[in-house]
């Protein structure tokens, strides 16, 4: 899942050397980049419908009345979470991976010159991926501590929504979906298809990364705090996608971050690490992020646009 050139399209920077050869921006493709996100929402919705129907039947059979809407909906969500959540996430993820995998492969991957792993995987790229993943984790955790100081209710609402989603106490969802399936699905969609569409539109790389990150964040709008940090993380995922021309590489980074979020968070909670120490790590992580940018920009394997003459 990697390509050699950005289809920028075929080096946007080189095309702007003079006014006559300036690349025309295709605005229709910028708007079209919303379509993959809309399709992802549609797949998720369709995956839920049959199980919501089955849960509704279960809830009615238990004696709940649709006249008491609040009690009925609470019972409905709980029944779905207890009995069918694994199936919902599995169907959604598998269907999405198939749809966006085919779309990315036929629409973008096949049209780019192929690269070997050694063309973009090296000591610097792997070091950058590891350092960035760890730094982002501690930066997010430190930001959560600050937010909790300012407005504890925001963190309480976030934790309640995460628990309600089943992401915490369901083994399949927590490990199989969160660590493996979600990164593949989301990277194929946003760093694969959306990124490819925006590249073909002719806009600058910075805007490609920004727009794809905004769309990625919007997919998490049901949990507002998660939406914000998803956009933040996506900026870095997009940067690595641009520099190393590989969706497979961003899948790897995304998986590493989710593994840290799953296992390291639990270990830190058990260790009783103080907020002060976490804030120190968060501050150090900012310097590490800067170091990663320097490391990547100095990596010979990283993509470098041709300089304007």
Question: How would you portray this structure in words?
Answer:
The protein is mostly helical and 309 residues long. It has one domain (28-297). Helices cover 75% and strands 0% of the residues. It is built from 12 helices and no strands. The protein is globular and about 70 Å long. The two termini are 32 Å apart. Mean pLDDT is 86; it is low at 4-21.
Instruction: Calculate Rg over CA atoms.
Output: 21 Å
Following the backbone from N to C, one meets helices and strands in this order, namely: HHHHHHHHHHHH
Mean pLDDT score: 86
Could you give the count of β-strands? 0
- Give the biggest beta sheet: none
Share of β-strand residues: under 5%
Shape: globular
With helices defined by DSSP (H or I, 4 residues minimum), what is the helix count? 12
Distance between the termini: 32 Å
Structural class: mainly alpha
Helix content: over 70%
Low-confidence stretches: 4-21
Count of separate structural domains: 1
């Amino acid at each position: 899942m990697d390509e050699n050139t950005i289809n920028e399209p075929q080096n946007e920077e080189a095309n702007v050397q003079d006014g006559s050869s300036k690349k025309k921006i295709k605005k229709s493709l910028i708007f079209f980049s919303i379509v993959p996100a809309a399709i992802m929402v549609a797949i998720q919705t369709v995956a839920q419908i049959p199980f919501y129907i089955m849960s509704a039947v279960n809830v009615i059979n238990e004696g709940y009345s649709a006249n008491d809407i609040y009690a009925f909906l609470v019972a409905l969500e709980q029944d779905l979470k207890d009995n069918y959540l694994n199936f919902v996430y599995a169907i959604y993820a598998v269907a999405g991976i198939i749809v966006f995998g085919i779309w990315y492969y036929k629409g973008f991957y096949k049209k780019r010159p192929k690269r070997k792993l050694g063309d973009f995987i090296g000591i610097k790229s792997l070091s950058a991926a590891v350092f960035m993943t760890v730094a982002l984790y501690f930066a997010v955790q430190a930001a959560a501590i600050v937010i909790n100081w300012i407005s504890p209710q925001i963190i309480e609402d976030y934790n309640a929504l995460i628990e309600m989603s089943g992401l915490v106490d369901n083994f399949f969802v927590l490990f199989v979906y969160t660590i493996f399936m979600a990164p593949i699905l989301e990277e194929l969609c946003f760093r694969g298809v959306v990124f490819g569409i925006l590249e073909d539109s002719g806009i600058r790389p910075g805007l490609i990364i920004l727009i794809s990150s905004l769309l990625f964040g919007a997919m998490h709008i049901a949990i507002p705090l998660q939406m914000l940090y998803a956009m933040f993380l996506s900026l870095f995922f997009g940067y690595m996608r641009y520099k190393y021309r590989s969706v497979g590489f961003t899948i790897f980074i995304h998986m590493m971050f989710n593994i840290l979020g799953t296992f390291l968070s639990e270990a830190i909670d058990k260790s009783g690490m103080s907020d002060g120490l976490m804030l120190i790590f968060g501050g150090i992580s900012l310097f590490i992020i800067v170091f990663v940018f320097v490391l990547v920009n100095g990596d010979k394997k990283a993509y470098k646009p041709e300089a304007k003459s």
